[in-house]
Amino acid sequence: MAKHGFDIKKQTGFGTIAIACFILLYTPIFLLIIYSFNSGTSIAAWEGFSWRWYVSAWENEQVQDATVRSLVIAFWASAIATSVAVMAALATTRTPKFKGQTAAFAMINQPLMVPEIVTAVALLILFSVIKVATGYTGLLYLIIAHAAFCIPFAYLPIRARLQGMDLSLEQAAADLYASPFLVFRRVTLPQLWPGILAGAMLAFVISLDDVVITEFVKSAGQDTLPTYMLGQLRRVITPEINAISTVLLGISVFMVVAFTLLSKIRN
Amino acid sequence: MADLSTTVAKRASRTRWMLLAPALIILVLAASGPLLITLVYSFLTPGDYGGVVWKFSTDGWFNVFAQRDIFDDTLGWSDAHLSILWRSIKLSLMTTLACLFFGVPTAYFIATRPKQQRDMWMLLIMIPFWTNLLIRTFAILELIRNEGTINTLLLWLGIIDAPIQMLYTEGSILLGMLYVYLPLMVLPVYASMERLDFSLVEAGYDLYATRFQVLRRVIMPLVKPGVIAGSILVFVPSLGAYVTPRVMGGGNQLMLGNLIELQFGQGRNWPLGAALSITLLVIVMVALIFYVRTAGKEDAHHG
């Protein structure tokens, strides 16, 4: 492509800005990780390497409770969101345009369009009425709220996978008198699973990371890991927060790599 | 035959809605339904200890933009609310511009790498995107606090005698929002840059265009849909941001999200909070409709 040494793809200064952008993105994250290993109580003055903040986070009962709660909510929310998203994707993909299609899409994608704070406030209002009426203050509110905003995140990768799938195998199975359910279980599902797994992982991470909606919906003593961390801000920050963040960061990196590999699996 | 085909179509339609039902029920219950209740609450009277009294009132909406003077009972604009609204819009626009400044060249840089390297560079954008927003806000907070990395370093080097107050300013909120929303700009812009046909760029140079002219007249028009999508993806969450202004603004520099939260906490004025949150929703919807219109026009243009 390059003629006479003239690089047509070059734009003056773009490389510099891009490198600056990557430095901006990663410097704070690296510092956060480095100071999680600080043996002192400061998050900026290095005093030597130690695991003490990981040990202290591990032994902190509030952190333990919040971690378990976060995982329970993320597990149920992503399981519910993924199951209903699979059904919704089957109903809306590879079909001719149907009446109510736009409305159905708008509903499914609503959590992506409405600002989180608006949904959070709306759920606070609704659940406060239900809490007074029924007296129930358990985790179910958080699970339903999380399931709802996870649906579009689970739906999109599943739909993308379905769109790339070949209809002929399913038609062949149906021609051989397989019932619709058998076709789904034996033909559709085995091809669809990378999409389902990708959708479930995305939903799990989105639920695990949520701050705003959880902060408004939770009852007293129902802190998740992110809302616990937000609460710690009012106090003196110790590298314990860095240690928790580093662990969560590790989970995210693992998930994004797995997600990327999953979306690469060919049909 | 006609009867049979309508029966089949009817059955297909019923199956479709039965499959859609579980998702739609959850969404009505915990996404769209509550918005309607919010709208109802915005027309009620605040209760003494939070909550509402079921008595119709337009005070909630009235107080969004106006206030009655407590001394002489005259009507006036609510300066506090208007300045918060203005700050939200201003900071969101500035965040979008800052993300454009960093994001577009970065997307271009990645799109012009050799094909096998692009995935690796994109992974570097995806990792922050998948990382908890709170953790990323924390990371930037620790950098610019008075006891943070930058100040500690500058003090140690002897460049400054006292820490520079960077946190709890509009600038720190802007930096925080740029940091957390930047990947949202790079992703869609890269998606359109990747499909860029460089023979058009080459043609531009053959016609003696300068690099800047090629950028402005050839590249930018071709990647405009991605740039618009990225701007919307950054602008909308910025406008409703709650965590970043709370952490980086520290209660001094409120944005709309924090003002809404205040009404459900210390303010104990749920109808006002509900009215403010519907106001935010309307602004976001206007931005989205603007986007759909522009994107639709682009399509018609190319098709």
UniProtKB/TrEMBL annotation, chain A:
Domain ABC transmembrane type-1: 67-262
Protein name: Spermidine/putrescine transport system permease protein PotC
GO CC annotation, single: plasma membrane
Lineage: Bacteria, Pseudomonadati, Pseudomonadota, Alphaproteobacteria, Rhodobacterales
PROSITE patterns reported for this sequence: ABC_TM1, PROKAR_LIPOPROTEIN
Superkingdom of the source species: Bacteria
Gene Ontology biological process terms in this record: transmembrane transport
Main location: membrane
Similarity annotation: Belongs to the binding-protein-dependent transport system permease family. CysTW subfamily.
Intracellular or extracellular location(s): Cell inner membrane; Cell membrane
Annotated transmembrane regions: 12-37, 71-91, 112-133, 139-158, 192-208, 241-262
Keywords: Cell inner membrane, Cell membrane, Membrane, Transmembrane, Transmembrane helix, Transport
Described purpose of this protein according to its UniProt entry: Required for the activity of the bacterial periplasmic transport system of putrescine and spermidine.
Classification via Pfam families: BPD_transp_1
Keyword check for ATP-binding: no
Native source organism of the sequence: Sulfitobacter undariae
Membrane disposition: Multi-pass membrane protein
Key word Transmembrane present: yes
UniProtKB/TrEMBL annotation, chain B:
Span of domain ABC transmembrane type-1: 85-291
UniProt xrefs under InterPro entries: MetI-like, MetI-like_sf
Annotated GO CC locations: plasma membrane
Biological processes, Gene Ontology terms: transmembrane transport
Membrane topology reported for the UniProt record: Multi-pass membrane protein
Domain of life: Bacteria
Transmembrane segment boundaries: 20-44, 91-111, 123-144, 173-191, 222-243, 272-292
Entry keywords, A to Z: Cell membrane, Membrane, Transmembrane, Transmembrane helix, Transport
Localization per record: Cell membrane
Entry keyword Nuclease: no
SUPFAM superfamilies: MetI-like (SSF161098)
Family: Belongs to the binding-protein-dependent transport system permease family. CysTW subfamily.
Protein name: Spermidine/putrescine transport system permease protein
Protein source organism: Sulfitobacter undariae
